[in-house]
Amino acid sequence: MSEDFRLSQFWYNEFVFYDYNASLDVEERLHGFFNYVLVEPPYLECMKGFGQTMNLISREVKTTPDGKQVMLTPNAFINC
Questions:
Q1: This prediction's pTM
Q2: Is 10 exposed, middle or buried (0-12, 13-18, 19+ CB in 10 A)?
Q3: Is the pLDDT of residue 1 over 60?
Q4: How far apart are CA 30 and CA 32, in angstroms?
Q5: Backbone φ, ψ for residue 24 (5° rounding)
Q6: Arithmetic mean of pLDDT over the chain
Q7: CA-based nearest residue to 50, from 23, 28, 69
Q8: 3-state secondary structure the chain
Q9: Which UniProt keywords apply (predicted)?
Q10: 24, 77, 25: which is closest to 55 by C-alpha?
Q11: From CA 31, how far away is CA 52, in angstroms rounded?
């Protein structure tokens, strides 16, 4: 699958390229930035990577006593 930068032509100031093969390679300015995260993974195999990214960019994440991270920010996977 080739990279698709078509939207960057229209929204070049807001466009951020995302590669689900490098799910934690997200600009630092976006870490903990979003109040709501909605994703539509193209393949079931990449859902784990999308979940890692959702955790990284969600505004509210708490760490439980046993060290697990729980997202408090509303997040959803969709399938259209």
A1: 0.73
A2: exposed
A3: no
A4: 6
A5: -100, 5
A6: 86
A7: 23
A8: CCCCCHHHHCCCCCCCCCCHHHCCCCCHHHCCCECCEEECCCCHHHHHHHHHHHHHHECCEEECCCCCEEECCCEEECCC
A9: Cytoplasm, Methyltransferase, Transferase
A10: 24
A11: 12
The span from the CA of 73 to the CA of 35, in Å, is: 6
- What tokens were used for 80? 């259209």
| Residues ≥6 apart with Cβ < 8 Å to 73 | 34, 35, 36, 37, 58, 59, 60, 61
With a CB cutoff of 8 Å and minimum separation 6, the contacts of 39 are 50, 53, 54, 75, 76, 77, 78
Question: And the tokens for 46?
Answer: 């990449």
Q: What confidence tier does 80 reach under pLDDT thresholds 50, 70, 90?
A: low
